[in-house]
C-alpha cells in the first residue's frame, strides 16, 4: 500500500468515526469527554483527575507553576490544584496530555523528533493565543488557550498512525494538507467533543485567511500560529506568513502596538509555555 492509499484509508476510517487511539490515550479521552459535560463541577473533576496518578501529579505540578501560582503558595493536593486551575483550564491541560500522549507512543526516532517539534510549536501557539486574546482581540482567553492546544491534534493523530505505514509522512507538506488534515482534524476534534466554535476557529487555519488586527477566535489562532517561534513541522499553511515576515507583524492596539504588548507579555507567554511543557 503506498502512502496515498494509506492516507485515504486512515481518513476514511476517521470519517466513519473509527479512530484508533493508543491504549495509553483512551483513558485521557474518556476523561476529556467527562470534563466537557456541563454538570462536571470542580469536586467531580478532582475525583476524576485523582483516579489517574500521572495526570494527578502533572495537575499539581502545573498548579504550582509560575503561570498559575501567582501567590507563590504551594499546593500539595489534587483537589486544591483543580480548585486553583478550574474545570475549563483543566480541560485544556487534559487536551494537552492527550496530544503529548499521541506523540509519546512513537517508536521511530524521526517521528518522535517530529512530534516533539510539533508540541513545541503547539505550546508556543497556545500561550501566544491566550495573551493575544486577552490583550488584542478580546475573545475568551481560556477558549483561545484550548484552541491553541488542539489546533494540530489531527497531525498528532497522523503521527501516531505513521508507524503502521512506513513513509506515510515522508512526502511534501501539501500531501498532508490535501489527503489528511481536514478529515483527520475534524474527526479527532469530534472525538474529543471540542465545541463547534473552537472547531470553526481551527478550520480557519486550513484556509489561511485572517484579519489584522485579529477580531475573532480564528484570527487570534492564526496570528498566534504565525508568531510562534517554532514552526509546525507538518506543513506550511496556504498563505501562511514566513518566519521572517512574521517577525515584522505589528499594528496599533489602543495607545500601543502589538509588538509592545508582546514585549510586555514575554515573561507571561514563557511561563505558560513552560507550564504546558509539563503536560
UniProtKB/TrEMBL annotation:
SUPFAM superfamilies tied to this protein: HD-domain/PDEase-like
Membrane spanning stretches: none
Pfam families according to UniProt: HDOD (PF08668)
Domain HDOD: 21-208
InterPro entries: HDOD (IPR013976), RNase_Y/CdgJ (IPR052340)
Xref: PANTHER family: PTHR33525, RIBONUCLEASE Y
Name recorded for this polypeptide: HDOD domain-containing protein
Organism from which the protein derives: Pseudoduganella lutea
Amino acid at each position: 500500500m503506498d502512502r496515498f492509499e494509506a492516507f485515504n484509508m486512515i481518513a476514511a476510517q476517521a470519517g466513519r468515526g473509527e479512530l484508533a487511539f493508543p491504549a495509553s490515550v483512551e483513558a485521557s479521552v474518556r476523561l476529556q469527554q467527562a470534563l466537557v459535560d456541563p454538570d462536571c463541577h470542580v469536586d467531580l473533576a478532582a475525583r476524576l483527575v485523582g483516579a489517574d496518578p500521572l495526570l494527578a501529579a502533572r495537575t499539581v505540578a502545573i498548579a504550582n507553576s509560575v503561570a498559575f501560582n501567582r501567590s507563590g503558595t504551594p499546593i500539595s493536593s489534587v483537589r486544591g490544584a483543580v480548585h486553583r486551575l478550574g474545570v475549563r483550564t483543566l480541560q485544556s491541560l487534559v487536551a494537552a496530555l492527550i496530544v503529548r500522549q499521541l506523540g509519546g507512543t512513537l517508536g521511530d526516532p524521526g517521528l518522535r523528533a517530529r512530534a516533539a517539534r510539533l508540541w513545541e510549536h503547539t505550546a508556543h501557539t497556545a500561550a501566544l493565543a491566550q495573551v493575544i486574546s486577552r490583550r488584542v482581540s478580546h475573545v475568551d482567553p481560556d477558549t483561545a488557550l484550548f484552541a491553541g492546544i488542539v489546533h494540530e491534534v489531527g497531525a498528532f493523530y497522523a503521527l501516531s498512525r505513521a508507524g503502521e505505514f512506513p513513509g506515510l509522512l515522508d512526502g511534501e507538506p501539501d500531501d498532508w494538507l490535501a489527503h489528511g488534515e481536514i478529515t483527520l482534524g475534524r474527526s479527532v476534534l469530534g472525538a474529543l467533543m471540542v465545541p463547534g466554535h473552537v472547531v470553526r476557529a481551527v478550520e480557519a487555519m486550513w484556509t489561511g485567511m485572517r484579519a489584522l488586527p485579529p477580531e475573532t477566535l480564528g484570527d487570534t489562532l492564526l496570528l498566534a500560529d504565525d508568531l510562534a517561534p517554532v514552526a509546525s513541522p507538518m506543513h506550511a499553511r496556504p498563505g501562511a506568513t514566513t518566519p521572517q515576515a512574521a517577525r515584522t507583524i505589528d499594528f496599533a492596539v489602543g495607545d500601543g502596538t502589538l509588538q509592545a504588548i508582546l514585549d510586555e507579555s514575554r515573561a507571561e507567554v514563557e511561563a505558560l509555555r513552560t507550564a504546558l511543557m509539563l503536560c
